[in-house]
Design goal:
- With 381 residues, this protein is α/β, with parallel strands linked by helices.
- It contains 14 helices and seven strands.
- Strands 3-2-1-4-5-7-6 form a seven-stranded mixed β-sheet.
- Helix 7 links the parallel strand 4 and strand 5.
- Helix 1 crosses helix 3 and helix 7 crosses helix 10.
Amino acid sequence: MYDHNQYIVKDSDKLQQIEQSLLATYFKNYDQDFLQTETGKEDIKANVFRRYNNSLAHVVPWVARQIALSGKTLVEIGSGTGSSTAAFAHFVEKIDGYDIDAQALAGAQARLETMELDNVTLHLVKAERLVETLRQNHADRVDIVLLFAVLEHQTIRERYETLKFCWEILKPDGLLVVTETPNLLHYDDLHTSQLPFLHLLPSELYARYADRSPREGFGKSFQNFTSLSVEELDTAIMRWGRGVSFHDFELAIGKEHDKYLAASGFEPEILSWFDVTLDEELLRHYFIFNKLKVPLAFSRVVLNLIYKKSEIVASELVPPPESIFVADKYLLREQNFVINSLNERLAATEKQLHEVLSSKRWLLGNLFAAPYRKLREILSS
């Protein structure tokens, strides 16, 4: 039975070593004042242990549901500081990790050495040469390709070429794993700007509005956007992260991409990580109501997808959970809330009235008032 707890790094010395390595590499050119803010400290924690722990607790068992990991080869694109790389290294035979950021890879290498993991090879590659490099290094094909929080940072062309080629280099029954990737088709840009609708705007409007973002340092990066060409601005926005949609997968894998979708983010491993929201329910029912040929996996705010290089039997899929926030149920919940609130106020008023009626002052006043009430009855008759 899978037990991720045995691989969680609990040694404080090792955690400190990983943090110091990342501060000296990945975070070296960060604004040091930013790293002292709460947001900066959370970013450090995420890179030191949080993403690694989430990978162990959610992503690894989710993938293991589809394929036996032992003896398998894995290619990770956008391996970054090695959080998910290290998590999978405990279970697969060999990993090749690729990234365009030399400092991130230096931090990843230090992490792997600290954790004594020696079955990973890291590769620094230029974005424009990624597919070519993959073609040279993996002519024999691989069992798993992992894209962990990376597609949203690629340009449209890079994303198309990456998905298309990754699908090609998989062995029969191999897996294309896409995880923790923001869905472009939602109201809020929770991933990047933390503003509603910004990710859906044209690039120039996006850049002009960016300084409204509550995210520290985000707006400043677009202050001089007028000096950039249209292509440079698009790339700058993409590098921050703009979101991915079903269109990307349909173009890269084919119109029938849903036939290969083995996991959609409704599995228990993912639901325990990303619970269903009202926005997701609304988009899911928009798909259903309009009879769109779009997998319900793409109704989720955060995309977690596994494509398998063989057609999937529909009965093997884990269905979405029963609707929680469907419009009529949601309205009913709101009505019940109002009714419950009124009932609570009524109960409080009744309690207060009972306290008044049972008080000695009221009883005494009622006793003194009794003759006057009787006299008024006689006079009025």
